[in-house]
User: Fold this.
Amino acid sequence: MAIIEPGHAAKQLIYERIFRSATFTAAILVLLILGGVAASLLRGAWPALSHFGFAFVTREIWNPVTDQFGALAPIYGTVITSLIAMLLAVPAGFGIALFLTELCPPLLKRPIGVAVELLAAVPSIIFGIWGLFVLAPVLQRHVQPWLIGSLGNAPAIGRLFKGPPYGIGILTAGVVLAIMVLPFIAATMRDVFDTVPAMLKESGYGLGATTWEVIWNVVVPHSRVGIVGGVMLGLGRALGETMAVTFVIGNAHRISSSLLAPGTTISSAIANEFTEAVGDLYTSSLIALGLLLFLITFTVIALAQAKLRRLERRVGAAV
Amino acid sequence: MNRRMLRKFKNGAFLTLSLLATLTGLACLAALLWTLISRGLAGMSSRIFTQMTPPPGGQGGLLNALYGSGVMTLLGILIGSPIGVLAGTYLAEYGRSSRLSTAIRFINDVLLSAPSIIIGLFVYEVVVVRMGHFSAIAGALALAVLAIPVTLRTTEDMLNLVPIGMKDSSAALGAYPWRTILSVLYPAARSGIVTGLLLAIARISGETAPLLFTALNNQFWSNNLNAPMANLPVVIFQFALSPYKDWQDLAWAGALIITVTILLLSISARVLLALLQLQRGS
Assistant:
């Protein structure tokens, strides 16, 4: 290239191209990572999936000795523990968010809000060991016997609370998960509630509505999209959570009708067994579990993001 | 009159429930912190920082695990954060609202909340299987993948907060975008980007699941990046599940160290951000 200009401009252009392509490459890398995750999981899972076919997701058996693997028990455990976690954490998170936005004295608002946000950063392994050493014994000694005694003989739901109180198991894992996602759900919901324009709320109060009526008829409908998005993000976390569950789930590959019995989840099965797995089919089956988890969480997170984006656009349009 | 009473009652009932939910939630979390602090402090001793992880039942410290965690977290950030910052720069300054950028932003948000164990499996498949053995470098790569989405997100957000006038002034002086970004935007957004880095360090230094089958663990001091390396989270995992009292005590001490580190990182990130806002305001 002939240098007609005094060198400077041409050099600048070259630098610009270099810098721009560097940023572009980095951005594309993000796409490649997700593609790579999907591709590598699929490749790793292929031996198991081609060997067992669709039956892999419908069979409960998990026997490393005879090389028979099915994902039904881990899928069941993942779904049920997350469900329990959501049943406990969503109302509690809603309550905390409500308290923080509508009831809390202004002086306490920031400290409690910050504390909740900081707790969301505590690594999940901490919740796991706490669950194992503190929560499980408490549940075993005090809560589970009571559940067995009072609900164990109830019609329909009685089956859920039968059997000995092991301490560890599906229910305990669900409770630990609930405590873990609670700060996250509460913080997200509070942020969503904060997007409700003050004027809307004041209109409600002006019409003589009580605090609860304003919340239920103004705040909640206005922030519904965001609430659903936040809850689903929390669900995504609960579904994929590994360490908090692994400690207290009991790692039993079977589906029990009782919530008090030990079980397993996709992530805890992988964490417990992966480095000990011998044989290609065993390893491949565990990776296939990972692939299932990837598909499930990807769907949930993607839906949640779509919802939250809709909220952002609406808030953006209103401003 | 009756109706009014009912409404008042309903109001009171639900607000009490909300208060109860807050108290129960905070009580659970306080109980957790209390156990962590009391048992962690009980397990704390000078041995923790001077001795290696002990054999089963023996006494010892966490020195090799602390070192390994430090090395892998540092490497993870060194690899991950430049990618995150550059990609965030692309989204904020070059790509903006193109289709590709929207897709990348979406994928990044998905990666941000994707289960970390999946990332561990990914790195296992791509690195560990290829190399034929577990290694510290595989662990660092897994952490890097987790650090990218955090830094990308904050970098983009922070660059978008820089007043447009600064960008325009630079362009009016004839600067190319790269010059504007490096000399005007990055300095203006510096504390914001550093916040992102702190958050990323906080995020990856407590991660356990992705290290289980990438870096594995090592009972001894190791400087070899090509071999398994001890790290705090996996040591906590193994020791807490062991039947030995000494190991469990070490696990609690390690848990306290990790949590305090992460809380300090998150708090400094917040303070930085608050200072930034203060600056903006004035």
